[in-house]
Amino acid sequence: MNPFSALFQPVSIGNMQLRNRIAMSAMTTNYGSADFEVTERLIAFHEARARGGAGLLTVEMCSVDVAQRYQPQALSLGDDRFIAGHRELVRRVHAQGSCVQPQISHPGPESMTDPVGPSVCVAAGTGWPCRALAEQELEPIMEQYAAAAVRAREAGYDGVELHAAHAYMLLGSFLSPQRNRRDDGYGGQTLETRSRLLLETIARIKRATGADFPLTLRISGHEGSFDGRELTETQRLAPKLVAAGVDCLQISGGVSHDRLVGQIVCGADTADGHNTAVAAAVRQVVSVPVMVVGRLHSPELSVQVVNEGRADIVMWARPLLADPELPEKLRNGRRAEVRECLSCQNCIDSMLLAPFDANMHCAVNGFSGREHSLRPVPVERRKRVVVIGAGTAGLEAARQCAGNGHEVILLERGPRSGGSLFLAATVHGANEPLLHYLRAEVQRLGVDLRLNTCADRAGVSALAPDAVIVATGARVAVADVPGGELPHVLQGPVLRQALAGRRQGLVGREPLWGWLARCLPAPFWRHLQPRHVRALARRWLPFGKRVCIVGDDLVALELAEFLQRLGRRVTLLTQAPVPALDVGPKRRQEQLARFDRLGGQVLAECAVRAITAVEVIFRCGEREGRLGADSVVLAGTPCSDATLASALQGAAAQVFSIGDCTGPGLIAGAVVDATHAACAIGRVYGES
Fold it and tell me: 659 with 618, same domain?
């Protein structure tokens, strides 16, 4: 019996019949046009998730007022001219068997054009204060909600979702005592007055669309903040919402009062399914279906939530970015083929790194958001593809090329695959599922993996490849620091080599690591997993009590947190204004916050002058400092390395360089590089 069968039982929201209990929650993508229009990119994105088997898709927030912009390339249902684009989106999603609904809202304080709210407050995203609405302005806004819902029905949508969660946007702001400081009939003094605008808006929508048009309400079951709504209030309010016309409650949690939505799009250290208990409590007081959203990344947890009656429908957002085929894979018994979300926050950071014009992407799925433009070219015959380097980029390229019907030979100079992903998965365990997925997939797809094999032009040419992909990783440069040769100083390249199991070059570099390289047999390195290293590190570590890590990037910060968790007193010394500038602000803030909570110390804009047996001497501006250290790690700086790629030019009809050998790009850069290369090599006719 399929262990996930409970997820694939049909369920109804009003008269909307879902084929299963898996729904995609609304996600800001910025895939719309600057004129609020639906684009081919947005349609293709949703079409892929419908094809992958989700029962219900929720299209990102559509403004009910065309004059109120929520995001640079957000959507709108504030005018009849938008109906045609939405109708085409609906048609394409329905053709794949999924239901679809838009989320409609007035951005309120979050507006990028004319922010308004129940009271004066400041939007975290823009930093702009809003204007308090006069009571006479509320009636036209309710009419805008109703008109937008009518347009949604005319476009063919199966229902609408109303956003009133997170003390956010207009309805959520009126509902929350945090933002609603009014003293009129819509004011913040009681639950009844705070919920009045929401209840009247629901009734207005139902009158306009008809009682048979399903309406889902997104609401925070518990706002979890000072002066926020409690769960007991939501339980008191929920039956009134149903009586007003709500056909389904979607339970989220928290508030959105920080720019990086830390309580909504949570990091890897947030508990899985953190909103499920609240959803179960709300479900006890209503007779309509209850959805739940929030870190339901594990299919096993999701089916448990449904089986135990904590919710009727589970909502996935990031899991469907990472793997649009997730529902179909579970339905067909292919759990091992699921590509899991890492909670790496690239989806949010990809929209923040270039403010006001960036689009959402996924670190582990190079096609996400590119479905409309990035496809393998069709080819008539099977090619022989040689991939050099079995790190993230090489494994992903090998996986895709093999899946596209080609013969793939993967050469790796070390005793096992993984490359720098092994270190990343060791110090940050949330990365480990990607390592296991890539290894399992290249094995399942029949990739010829040749370990302990160094590549050169003669060897590669002897394989007679049609295409060569060079994915040999970065060269790590370490500054020459007086004292860097001392026995308690470990250089980043040595640590990477040791964890990669490449023993050549380790002997004599440092006594302990040299001993390990000599004494541990090759099978040990081949079968070593990140979890084994973490388990060993909890019992024994070759680091003193006081550790100074010198480095600027995410790897240095992750290593610092890892050692701090293991009881070391760690100081991260960086020349940058802040560490980890190679990732976006959300991931960086989460990583720094964890390190700070653990008691770690960061010294920024500091340059190391020398290392002695007992301390690190550094300079910050005009001041010299001294830091006691029992162990020092010189993490180094990853640099591009085109040596092998240059030597292999002309060795095949197609030669590609991908991943860190072209410059540091972390997991996201490696995956998208691999995707572009695999698409250029093409897919054999008839391969799915």
Answer: no
